Amino acid sequence: MVRVNAPLAADVITPKSAVLVQDRPVVAFGPWLATALRDCNQSGHALQIVTPPATRLSLPLRLVLAGEKNPWVVGSSEAGYYDGLSGAPLHWDGEAFSLVPGARDYAPGYLTPPAGPIGIHLTLTFRVRYERQDLLGGAIEGIHGSLAGRPPLGWGTAEPATNLWAPADITALCNQRQGNPTWVMVTGGGSETGPEALIGTVLYTPTSDGMEESVTLVAGYTEATPPPIASLPALIGEVAAEYRLLSLSAQLSPGRPDLTTEPRWLGSPAPIGLAVGRELGGGAPTPPDIPGYRIGDVWWYPLGDGRSAAGWQRYEQLMRHLRPPG
Asked: Model-level pTM?
């Protein structure tokens, strides 16, 4: 174990990267890993997690790595390495794992069949604004309740979520951060008629008059219990009627119902629809080829069935309409 600028700790430290070798069935975004990522961001290092092909990532860790410069390195020196989220072949360049020059195809290991059953993920990504005196987390609680039939079970600043669900406690934590953004995860159990698992990550960012809540909430369904796509407009209407909903996008993607991620190709996500509040252009007329309709103070634009990639073309057209050049 090498230590540089404690408390940053890793198996290998170079001027560019901190490499952590994790040989376990599931790697979660625990307190130690959360601290390592924060320290790497502050020091300018890339955090690179190396695992064998049988390892899976928890949903919060997968979401964190997807938005960072940090690949999930899968494989070994004998079999070769690849990025477990993109399938891109990787190699060790002496300072970090980087893309293999000239590689055009997925790594062979990324194309192997999945080890566990594959279902469907419903991903809702939304932003809500709260005023300074409001309790945070109300929109999450409402959406979670609609999908699972009950509020979230817990929350925390790393895995596992050790705090019982309590919007007042989340609000107090964010207020204690003195204007700094706060990341938390939210977890909830599944139900017999709903998702098998329901997990979300949230970034609270202070604004001039309160707090903005940016949420990615993922529900894992089996093929036998499909997600309630038809009820999404009603769900959005309930949230928009009570909260200042800026936007909400919905999509489907293949995935394990338990919400862990294998380093395998399972298929592409596809959009269902996009809700846009007044502050982001919801009052504008809809594009001719993408009819939308008002739900309270937001516009809802159906984009597809969540299974056809053609929905992304409509999404791009809609985004050009909502955010015209210049």
From this structure: 0.92
